[in-house]
Write a structure and sequence with these properties.
InterPro entries: ATPase_NBD, Heat_shock_70_CS, Hsp_70_fam. This protein is α+β, with helices and mostly antiparallel strands. Among the domains are: 224 residues, Nucleotidyltransferase, domain 5 (2-Layer Sandwich); 170 residues, ATPase, nucleotide binding domain (Nucleotidyltransferase, domain 5, 2-Layer Sandwich); 106 residues, Substrate Binding Domain Of Dnak, Chain:A, Domain 2; 101 residues, no CATH class. The protein has 27 helices and 33 strands. Strands 19-18-13-14-15-20-23 form a 7-stranded mixed beta sheet, sandwiched between helices. Strands 1, 2, 3, 4, 11 and 12 form a 6-stranded mixed beta sheet that branches.
């Protein structure tokens, strides 16, 4: 039978099975609605950020000081709370009242000894079992607060800033936590959010949130991405597969890696040592440490941009000023161990995901500390040069990803368990390894003690997060959010408290306390705002300038009243809001009354002045009326001028009817012109009515006792006649305007029609089509004008038709212009493409040139393009631009290859030049090397055009061989000189022993003769030969220049002869001195040493004795791989040998000549 929790988990699998507390499913259903605002919150150790999804993008909200991130720092003193930048500024002055990094102690049962996650603020065991509390050292008494309260204060400030920015209330938020947080820590974060008034439908990993920000609206194929989050509290990594708005997590790092706080702690130790070294004292005062930490944080940000930063601060605890220049190299050296730990963690994460660095598509670095250059370089090196994504802000990626999750804009296809979890049930233990796909359900042993262990803190040790007996529990679920939930068959789920978290009753009490504090803060804020507003108003009124008018006394009295209220406000500054508000309203009303009186008086004075100006301008206005056609303003001026006379005459009428008729006729006369006319066909009627009214007015004045009916009847007739004239005039004016509009319409049509002429314009399809469209439009317009409907159309309809005609004509003309411009662009692109193709086809590269293959490929593609251009002349501009881009790419590739080959050639030439220069220095300007240097410089280095790379390589190879043989020859000479010295010593020793023997036998003593010393070093001369012209012959002589040089040849075995002759030239100035030993006579004193038999004897050798050198290396082994066709140095060596006389090659025949 399937359990209730199992059915519930399966039914809610599409919503990540977030059934970890009551109402979670209902909250999940509210996510993604357009009318529901759900925040994405990155609750960071150092900084926090809030984002929301609106207008099709995730937007990071600013706080009250218009910054996008808020420091995760809280200042507590009595009932006062300061959060963010304000708390950070107070940290140096009140280090024991300022809590930072509170997230690092959430959900923990204890803090290991030696750790100080909250800086100078200490922690101790909480009042609730298996929990901790934070001790705030107040001036009056110590205050103990839970980590959830501190975190709730921070979240509440973020919530207020978001509500102020959005102008709406917010109650839902998706939180992001590090992947190394266990279930207790995640539950503590959710409890803190609930205390702040935020209900949390989902908690996600920070690396997963960053991956969602990366995947949002990202086109392209699916690729594997390494997410590295280097935050303040620690670092974590994840390997994910990312597609368009889809994220699939493959593996998480299962341990907390070093983060920004670890870097800061290490550098604080370094700076403390510098203080001790420079100032001779240790910085133990907490204020000094906080000041130093704040300055180091600023310097660390600078070191990400510049190689060195200066820290200059005053330490109040020591009473001294400290100045230090911190280099980026020092920071990298001190934190090298932490950097290595991070890279090792990344490698382990890749290994668990079974992904090689070469398989990664991109790397995303998030978190503030991810900007460290050394860390970025190490990550780049680790991933084999894969690109680092720069499109996502490292400080905002997590918050944006949480907002996208809240709006359900990115799908989380798969999440894995970040920490290894062990469940012990009596004698049974179940291990859920890290990176297990979620959700996961584990059956439990009924009525057994259940113990759950997960990692926590900085180490790898397992910590107990639950240890209790649940008789009714039979199933344990682990969900996408990282929570664990027990379930039974009846209720479906069981609420239980994890170690490190607070019980529900304590949370309810803390929630009420926070609500009371919020209400007190609201009332106090309202009171302070009202007081400040009252004080501003009083100071404003007191500063008003006293006017010199009739309201002077009123303002003086009001100012005196404000002065007294300011004194009262300074004495009684702790009154309630209502009292301040009532007083402010009273002062504001008095000020408004004063301003209203002054404004009324000012309006009256301005009206009077305006009337006076109008009366002064009347004569000039009346004088200018006679030349006008419209009576509009003239009637008003005339009325102003004639009104006194009319009123005077009407006063003579005795009855009200006569008086009324008189005024009516006067009004009609004011509306009708007198001397001037409108110059139209109604002038005669107007003049007749004018005369009739004038006569009737005179009759009315002469007959004041006429009956009222007669007055009324005449008034109606005059009124009807005036209305008829006015209507006829309006109708006539409308007909005139209509005729004018019709004439304008026809003129526009004819002008437009005449402007297009197919015969006179360009002979192409576009212009013909344009002319046809214009002619059709004009025919339609003329047809409508000449139709019955067009004849009866009024002015408005004609104007509308004219506007439509002009709009359509302008549209046709605009479309034609755009088509002509597009055709011109296409023609230009066609010509450019044709030129590019011909340019590519005319490219000439010799066969065998390194760029030959690229040039042939470019020619091949250009032939295809040329065929396409010939057979399809109507190619679109886009296709032509792609064709040009393809050819340009080919040229760019060819040019790049040419530049690379040229650079390689120059490198080889420089290497050849360097080899020759070093050889000349090493062998003291040997003639052979001097000649080689001259020839190579003339034929290879300075020759234009330059020889091929292969020729330079062969020359370099040959020069290296020459230098190797010369070094071998020099070493052989040194060995010969050492052997000659030993032979001479033995020779003298033999003479000494023989002399003793002769003396003993009574014979005279012999003195050893002094042999003439002469160096065996031959003079090296350059013998020009026949050089090869082809690179194949050079390669056959010198070998392949791409292959490494062979080791220098060793002397042949026959070089060690039983008869070795060593001759030393005392005049030699160095070990390698070119000499000429071609002469046959070596002098009078020469000796031979028989090394095989050990016999020592002196012998005078005759002139011209010579033989081949017993060493043998000068002729055989030293020749190297060079052929006979190439010029080579010639070394002539003449050496004495017993029995060699004359010039022949047979023993005693003469001297032999050897070549090197």
């Amino acid at each position: 039978m399937t359990s209730g929790l199992s059915i519930l988990a399966i039914s809610r699998l599409n919503v990540y099975s977030v059934t970890t507390y009551t109402g979670a499913a209902e909250l999940w259903s509210r996510m993604g609605r357009k009318d529901e605002v759900v925040l994405g919150v990155d609750l960071g150790t150092t900084n926090s950020a809030v984002a929301v999804f609106r207008d099709d993008s995730a937007e990071v909200l600013t706080n009250d000081i218009d910054k996008r991130t808020t420091p995760s720092c809280v200042y507590v003193r009595d009932l006062e709370r300061q959060v963010g930048e304000a708390a950070l500024r107070l940290a140096a002055s009140f280090p024991f009242n300022t809590v930072r990094n509170v997230k690092s102690v959430l959900g923990r049962t204890s803090v290991p000894k030696g750790e100080a996650p909250l800086g100078p603020v200490v922690t101790r065991d909480g009042a609730v079992k298996k929990s901790i509390s934070i001790v705030i050292d107040n001036t009056e008494a110590a205050i103990s607060l839970s980590p959830e309260e501190i975190a709730a204060t921070l979240l509440l400030e973020l919530k207020k800033a978001a509500e102020q920015h959005l102008q709406t209330e917010v109650s839902l938020a998706v939180l992001a936590v590090p992947s190394y947080f266990n279930a207790s820590q995640r539950k503590a974060v959710m409890d803190a959010a609930n205390l702040a008034g935020l209900r949390v439908p989902f908690i996600m990993n920070e690396t997963t949130a960053a991956a969602m920000a990366y995947a949002h609206d990202r086109d392209g194929e699916e690729k594997t991405v390494l997410i590295v989050d280097v935050g303040g509290g620690g670092s974590s990594a994840a390997v994910v597969k990312v597609a368009l708005n889809q994220v699939e997590v493959m593996a998480h790092s299962d341990v907390r890696l070093p983060g920004g706080e670890d870097f800061d702690d290490r550098m604080m130790q370094y700076l403390t040592q510098c203080i001790k070294r420079d100032l001779g004292a240790e910085a133990l005062d907490p204020r000094d440490c906080e000041i130093l930490r704040a300055q180091w944080t600023k310097a660390k940000e600078k070191l990400s941009r510049i190689p060195q930063a200066t820290i200059s601060i005053f330490l109040p605890g020591l009473g001294k000023e400290f100045r230090c220049d911190v280099k980026r190299a020092d920071f990298e050296e001190e934190c090298a161990e932490h950097f290595k730990s991070i890279t090792d963690g990344l490698l382990a994460t890749l290994k668990r995901a079974e992904v090689k660095p070469e398989q990664l598509g991109e790397v995303l670095l998030v978190g503030g500390s991810s900007r460290i250059p050394q860390l970025r370089s190490l990550v780049q090196e680790l991933v084999k040069g894969k690109p680092l994504c720069k499109a996502v802000n490292p400080d905002e990626a997590v918050a944006k990803g949480a907002a996208l999750m809240a709006a359900k804009r990115v799908e989380l296809k798969q999440e894995v368990l970040s920490l290894e979890t062990r469940i012990r049930m009596g004698n049974k233990e179940v291990i859920v390894p890290a990176n297990t796909k979620l959700p996961r359900e584990i059956p439990l042993v009924e009525d057994a003690n259940i113990e759950i262990l997960q990692k926590v803190g900085r180490g790898n040790a397992m910590a107990r997060i639950f240890d209790s007996r649940l008789p009714s529990a039979h199933l344990l679920g682990i969900y996408h959010s990282g929570f664990v939930q027990f379930g039974n068959r009846i209720q479906g789920k069981i609420d239980c408290r994890l170690d490190g978290c607070l019980p529900s009753a304590v949370l309810r009490s803390l929630a009420k306390r926070m609500q009371r504090r919020q209400e007190n803060e609201r009332i106090e804020s309202q009171r302070v705002e009202s007081k400040n507003a009252l004080e501003d108003l009083l100071r404003h009124v007191r500063g008003l300038e006293i006017p010199d008018d009739g309201f002077r006394n009123d303002l003086v009295a009001l100012r005196d009243k404000c002065e007294k209220k300011l004194q009262w406000l300074n004495e009684y500054g702790n009154r309630q809001f209502a009292e301040y508000d009532n007083l402010r309203t009273e002062i504001a009303d008095a000020l408004n009354d004063y301003n209203a009186k002054r404004e009324a008086e000012r309006t009256r004075v301005e009206a009077r002045e305006q009337l006076c100006r109008t009366l002064q301008e009347i004569p000039s206005n009346v004088k200018s009326v006679s030349g006008r056609n419209e009576p509009g303003d003239d009637r008003v001026v005339a009325a102003v001028v004639r009104l006194p006379a009319i009123e005077g005459r009407s006063s003579l009428c005795r009855t009200p009817a006569a008086k009324g008729l008189s005024l009516f006729i006067s009004e009609v006369l004011l509306q009708l012109p007198r001397e001037e006319v409108l110059n139209d066909k109604f002038d005669e009627r107007v003049l007749k009515l004018h005369k009739r009214c004038t006569d009737r007015l005179a009759w009315t004045l002469d007959n004041p006792d006429a009956s009222e009916e007669e007055y009324i009847r005449f008034r109606d007739k005059v009124s009807a006649a005036a209305d008829e004239i006015h209507s006829d005039r309006q109708r006539h004016a409308a007909d005139l305007r209509k005729a004018e509009v019709r004439k304008t319409f026809e003129s526009r049509v004819q002008t437009t029609l005449q402007s297009t002429n197919i015969k006179e314009g360009p002979n192409n399809a576009l212009y013909k089509s344009y002319c046809q469209d214009i002619e059709e439009l004009c025919r339609d317009a003329l047809g409508w004008l000449r139709s019955s409907r067009g004849s009866l159309a009024d002015e408005r309809e004609l104007s509308d038709r004219l506007r439509v005609f002009e709009t359509e004509a302008a549209g046709i003309h605009r479309n034609y212009g755009e088509q002509v411009a597009a055709e011109q662009r296409r023609a230009e692109a066609f010509r450019a493409a044709e030129q590019k193709v011909l340019q590519a086809l005319n490219l000439k590269v010799l066969e065998g040139h390194p760029c030959y293959e690229e040039a042939e490929a470019l020619k091949k593609s250009s032939r295809k393009h040329l065929s396409l251009l010939k057979h399809e002349s109507d190619l679109s501009t886009e296709m032509l631009e792609k064709l040009i881009e393809s050819i340009d790419t080919g040229f760019a590739t060819l040019e790049q290859k040419r530049v690379e080959e040229e650079q390689k050639l120059m490198n080889w030439i420089l290497t050849l030049e360097q080899e020759l220069t070093d050889g000349l220095q090493e062998f003291d300007n040997d003639p052979l090397l001097v000649q080689l240097e001259k020839c190579c410089r003339r034929q290879l280095m300075e020759r234009q055009p330059r020889p091929s790379l292969q020729v330079i390589g062969h020359a370099l190879y040959a020069v290296r061989n020459v230098l190797g043989h010369l070094r071998q020859y020099r070493d052989s000479q040194q060995k010969r000189q050492e052997a000659a010295s030993g032979a001479e010593a033995a020779y003298h020793e033999a003479y000494a022993v023989g002399s003793k023997l002769l003396s003993y036998l009574g014979f005279p003593v012999l003195r050893p003769p002094q042999p003439a010393r002469q160096s065996l070093c031959s003079r090296v001369t350059w013998t020009p030969g026949v050089s090869t012209s082809s690179s194949e012959q050079a390669q056959s002589q010198f070998g392949d220049p791409e292959q490494p040089l062979p080791p220098p040849p060793q002397p042949a075995a026959k070089a060690v002869s039983s008869h070795a002759v060593w001759i030393v030239n005392e005049r030699a100035q160095s070990q390698y001195q070119p000499m000429d030993f071609t002469s046959g006579d070596l002098g009078a004193d020469k000796m031979e040493v028989d090394s095989d038999e050990g016999a020592v004897c002196g012998r005078r050798l005759g002139t011209g004795g010579a033989r081949r050198s017993a060493h043998g290396g000068l002729h055989g082994a030293d020749r190297g791989p060079r052929g006979r066709g190439r010029a080579r140095p010639s070394v002539a060596v003449s050496a004495p040998c017993p029995g060699l006389r004359g010039r022949g090659r047979t023993p005693g025949a003469g001297a032999g000549r050897q070549e090197l």
